[in-house]
Write a structure and sequence with these properties.
By secondary structure, this protein is an alpha+beta fold. The chain is 34% helix and 23% strand. It has a six-stranded antiparallel β-sheet. Helix 1 packs across helix 3.
C-alpha cells in the first residue's frame, strides 16, 4: 500500500511558484497571493462560498471547464467565481505534480493576457531629461 500523501499547503504552492520567472509574493483581498509582474496568478480563496483550504488559480475559461469536468473532486467553481477566469482547487485533493502543471498553465495564461502594448511602449519610450 502506498503511503498517503500529506495535504498541500500554501507554502508548497509558494515553493513551486518560486521556480517560475517573475513571480512575486503579495496579498490579494487580505490573503496570501502570488503574482506575475503584479497580476494575480493564485491566492488562497477568501470568499465565504469557497471551501476551506481552497486555492484560486487564474486560468482561461475553456481550460477551467475542462479540468473541472475531468476531476471535479479536485477542481470546482462557486457562483461568486464563475465570472472570473479562475478555478478553485481543493488543496487536500491535488498532488504536487498536478499543482506544478496547474501553476505553469496559470503562468502561461496570465503572461499571455498581459497588455503587451504597454510593456512594449515602456521599453521603447524615449528617456526624458529632468528639464523636460
Amino acid at each position: 500500500m502506498a503511503p498517503r500523501q500529506t495535504a498541500i499547503t500554501f507554502d508548497d504552492v509558494r515553493r513551486i511558484a518560486a521556480e517560475l520567472p517573475d513571480v512575486e509574493e503579495g496579498t490579494a483581498w487580505g490573503v496570501p497571493a502570488l503574482k506575475l509582474r503584479g497580476r494575480l496568478l493564485a491566492c488562497m480563496a477568501s470568499h465565504k462560498s469557497a471551501e476551506p483550504d481552497s486555492l484560486v488559480v487564474c486560468l482561461g475559461f475553456d481550460q477551467r471547464d475542462a479540468i473541472i469536468a475531468d476531476a471535479p473532486e479536485t477542481y470546482y467553481l462557486k457562483p461568486h467565481y464563475a465570472g472570473y477566469a479562475s478555478v478553485l482547487v481543493r488543496l487536500s485533493r491535488i498532488d504536487r505534480e498536478a499543482l506544478k502543471d496547474l501553476l505553469h498553465a496559470s503562468w502561461r495564461f496570465v503572461d499571455a493576457s498581459a497588455p503587451k502594448r504597454s510593456i512594449r511602449r515602456r521599453a521603447t519610450a524615449p528617456k526624458r531629461s529632468a528639464g523636460t
